[in-house]
Structure formats: C-alpha cells, structure tokens
Write a structure and sequence with these properties.
18 helices, mainly alpha, two-stranded antiparallel sheet
Length: 401
C-alpha cells in the first residue's frame, strides 16, 4: 500500500530530480535576462512567453546552485527586529516560517475571524463575548503555526526554483542554511503543534480541519502546472471561513442557512485571496519568467486591473450573500460590504503594479485595511444582535404563551 504524502516527503529528502523550465527565454531573437536595472516585461514579451515551448532541464545540482548564490547579494544576518534577538542557530528556522513577515499569518487569520463573528449570532444559544474572544485567540494561535508550516512546505518544494528569484534566493533552504531533511522534521513539529491547537476546539472541527492539509501541500505544486495557483492558495487560506461555525457549535450539516453562509463566505475569501496574491505576484513577474513559474500575473499582465476589479466585485457580492443568509443587519452591510467595496476600489486604483515596493505596501496594508473594515462590520452586527437578544427572547416567550 502506498501513502502519497509519505512518498512525497521521501522524494523531498532524497532530492528526486524534478523538471524545471529553462533559466533564460529567447524572444524575437534576443534573450530576456533579469536584473535590477532591466525594464519591466512588455506585453509582447509576456505573450511570447505564453506561446513558447519551454524545454525542461534537470533540477539544479549543487555547483549550479552555488553559482547562482554567488551572483546574488551576500546573505547578511539580521541586525534589527525580532530576528536579531534570537540565537544565531534559531534565525534560519525563524526566517523559514517568515516570523519577521507576519502579513501571511494575518491573511490566514482573517477568514477565521470573519466566520467566528458571523457564526456567533446564529449559534444556539447565541455565543457570549467571552466565547467569541477565546475562539478567536485559538484561531490566531493556529494561524501562526499553520502559516509557518505552509511556508516550510512551500520552500521544500521550491528549493530548486527559489535560487532563480531575486526575492527568494536567500531563503534558508535555498541558500543551504537548512537541509531538506531538517526542513521536513521541522514541518512535522509544526503540524503536531497545529494538531494540538485543533484539538482544543469541539470535535467536529477536527473533521473539518484535517482535509485542509491536502490543500497546504498542493499549492507549491500548482505553480508548476497552472497559471492560476492563486486559486489553489485561495482554497487553502480561506478554509478558516468555514471553521468558525463548528467552533461555536453551529452544525453546518443540519442548518441550511449556516451552510449557505459558510459556503458564500468561503468563496468570498477565495476571491479576496486571488486578488491580493495577484498584486503580490507582480513583484516577481520578471523572475517567474526566468524560472518557469506560472502565475495569474503572467497570464493576465495586460489586463490585471480589470481582473482585480472583477475579483473585488465578486468578493463583495459573495460577502453580502453570506451576511443575508446569516440574517445580518444594516451594520454588516454598511460596514463590512460597503467598507470592503470602498477600500478595495482605492487599492486597485492606486497600486502601481510596475513598482515592487508599491505592490508590497498594498499587499501588507491592504490586509488590515480591507480585513479590518470587514471585521468591524461583523463585530458591530454581532454586538447589536447580542444586545437585542434578551428582548427577542422575551417576545418569543410571549408568542409561545
């Protein structure tokens, strides 16, 4: 009997060769090379890339990897921030889980927060503020651990692609600071810690949570076979939009309204994930061509803002549908839906997709801007309904009498 996950893990440790695309790409008789001084790829170059037949070559051997690392700026140990306070032997592992770059953790956490706040008013009895806060803190702990595990899995799969990308070539596994075997062991430790957090929730959460591991492992592979790996990332990062309901005791299988709300909230977050990661992907678009990595930014480089606008419209519409199914009131529709529409519109209008720093700024801050207004609207709706609950209960008693 074969176990795919164990087999894949063994392949990572053994370094079984995988194919990758050519390092350079010939377009209209000349070679596109990536450097900090090179202009952004033009539309014709990207279209030519899509149409070209990229011949596979063997995976990087150690001399090739060493040569690429020599061409990159030398690694400098962190002198400031949280990483500088850690023992030197811990730093590569902290870098591996992006401890100093928590934006990904927040993006993983927000769907959990959304579903918790949406589920709280429809739980029977209505969830107390203490229960909501406790559940939220558990989700935050889980997001920190599982985001780190996801980054480690991603870097294990991408260890032969990362040296080709300026932003990633000095990651711990890519530069050799952590071996693939140690990275695999580290992944196991994080997954066990995540399981410990998951077991703190009601038992149904275990059955909803475990399947997400398949999505966590599949995203790095999606970059090799499709121009839409962001959709797979959305399926993964949005899973928390379902988890808040069983975490507060809402049975999705017996409550049609809750199931509808959870499904629409999940798809809304998928649209949000694809949107922000499309902006993120524009930071690496030149190096992605060089390394043969596929992304939605490459596929739709000529009409990115139109695609972003469509994703924003879908996100807000699906969010509104989720709120309607959950019985949300005006505070939610004005705060969460209206706020998301405005903040997403501003971001799409202002982001300069040709500027790496601007893309990064909107990726990091857009998380708090849009995620924040959605959370505030949901929290406001929960507060109003919680305050009104005693009056509603009295009316029900009178009607029964």
């Amino acid at each position: 009997m074969r176990f795919p996950v164990v087999s894949s893990a063994w392949r990572i440790c053994q370094g079984v060769p995988r194919h990758r695309a050519r390092v350079s790409l010939t377009v209209t008789g000349r070679t596109i090379r990536t450097s900090q001084n090179q202009p952004w790829l033009g539309r014709q170059q990207v279209l030519a890339f899509h149409q070209s037949q990229r011949q596979p070559s063997p995976v990087l051997d150690e001399p090739e990897k060493a040569q690429l690392l020599q061409q990159a700026p030398a690694y400098i140990a962190p002198k400031t921030g949280i990483l500088s306070a850690l023992p030197a032997s811990w730093v590569p592992y902290a870098e591996l889980i992006r401890l100093d770059k928590p934006a990904g953790t927040y993006y993983l956490f927000f769907p959990c927060l959304f579903s918790t706040l949406m589920a709280a008013p429809i739980a029977v009895p209505m969830a107390s503020p203490g229960s909501v806060i406790g559940t939220t803190l558990l989700f935050l702990s889980g997001a920190i651990i599982m985001r780190g595990a996801g980054c480690t899995i991603n870097d294990l799969w991408d260890r032969n692609l990362d040296p080709h990308v300026a932003r990633t070539r000095l990651r711990p596994i890519a530069r050799g600071a952590i071996t693939p075997f140690k990275g695999l062991v580290y992944t196991g430790v994080q997954l066990f810690a995540g399981l410990g957090i998951l077991l703190q929730f009601p038992l149904p959460c275990l059955f909803y949570g475990v399947p997400s591991l398949l999505l966590v492992a599949s995203y790095p592979l999606a970059k090799r076979v499709t121009y839409y790996p962001q959709f797979v990332l959305g399926l993964t990062f949005s899973w928390g939009a379902i988890m808040g309901f069983p975490a507060l005791g809402v049975d999705l299988l017996s409550n049609a309204a809750a199931l509808t709300a959870a499904g629409l909230l999940y798809t809304s977050n998928i649209a949000w994930t694809v949107l922000y990661d499309m902006i993120y992907a524009h930071m690496d678009i030149k190096d992605d061509v060089k390394a043969g990595i596929k992304s939605i930014a490459l596929k739709h480089d000529a009409e990115t803002k139109q695609v972003l606008s469509g994703l924003a419209a879908a996100q807000v519409a699906l969010l509104a549908g989720a709120g309607y199914a959950a019985g949300a009131g005006p505070v939610f529709f004005l705060g969460s839906c209206g706020g998301a529409l405005v903040t997403l519109g501003i971001m799409i209008r202002r982001v300069n997709l040709k500027n790496v720093k601007d893309c990064w700024w909107w990726f990091v801050n857009g998380c708090w801007i849009t995620g924040g207004v959605i959370s505030l609207g949901l929290a406001g709706d929960y507060a109003v309904r919680y305050i009104e609950e005693p009056q509603t209960a009295d009316v029900r008693k009178v009607e029964k009498a």
